[in-house]
Amino acid sequence: KNQVEQSPQSLIILEGKNCTLQCNYTVSPFSNLRWYKQDTGRGPVSLTIMTFSENTKSNGRYTATLDADTKQSSLHITASQLSDSASYICVVSALGSGAGSYQLTFGKGTKLSVIP
Amino acid sequence: DTGVSQNPRHKITKRGQNVTFRCDPISEHNRLYWYRQTLGQGPEFLTYFQNEAQLEKSRLLSDRFSAERPKGSFSTLEIQRTEQGDSAMYLCASSGQGYAVQYFGPGTRLTVT
Question: Nearest-CA residue of chain B relative to A86?
């Protein structure tokens, strides 16, 4: 069964500090991995998407890494801001078996709170 | 605004009533997805369309749920005979071809009393 596990479940950090969120997956065959940011009461917004051949991808203060061998990804947030408070969801896509196949597995998210 | 829009944003209904939600995707996107999300959980896939064709439905989509995308543009999700367990955020997303990024709408929060 395809699964995506995220850790920690929740995290509180001081404004200006860095943090790293983890994502482990057992999705196969792997296609790509995405990180989304979801503010409370809003829809998720894409931060990064990485395919099998990509090890790292940055989007401003967000840097995602991918180790396809160990099936792990991390999202590193640098110099956190109050506006970074949100849930961060890891989503892994599997190669579909046909044109109509849909294979996205969502993690439960890590709830990040940045405090002044 | 050229993002994904959803209406209504909030819906409170009594158990047993029918509700319908609307999603307007990004205009050039041919794929449209519906998800359900409960508190503290990630989104759960319900169904997806490529143009007007509904290509896949999750087992979560019971016979009380129906989704349409009649002209390959906007989509509606109807829930008949709502139950308290249907209370959740219903998210719509759209994407272009291939394994493109999905752009999510703001969601419709349903509360069944």
Answer: B40
Instruction: Compute the Cα dihedral for A51, A56, A57, A62 and give only its sign.
Output: positive
Cα–Cα distance for residue pair B12/B28, rounded to 1 Å? 32
What whole-number distance in Å separates Cα of residue A84 and Cα of residue B30? 31
Cβ separation B44–A106 shorter than 8 A: yes
Predicted local confidence at residue B1, as pLDDT: 52
The shortest C-alpha distance from B23 to chain A (Å) reads 13
Angle made by CA atoms A66, A68, A74, in degrees to the nearest 5: 25
Measure Cα distances from B19 to A42, B11, B53, B112 in Å: 20, 8, 22, 10
Q: CA–CA distance from A54 to each of A27, A57, A63 (Å)?
A: 17, 7, 12
**Does the beta carbon of B75 lie under 8 angstroms from any beta carbon of chain A?**
no
Query: For A94-104, what is each residue's pLDDT tens digit?
Result: 876 444 456 78
CB-CB contact of A22 with A108 (8 Å): no
Alpha-carbon torsion (A85, A22, A109, B24), positive or negative: positive
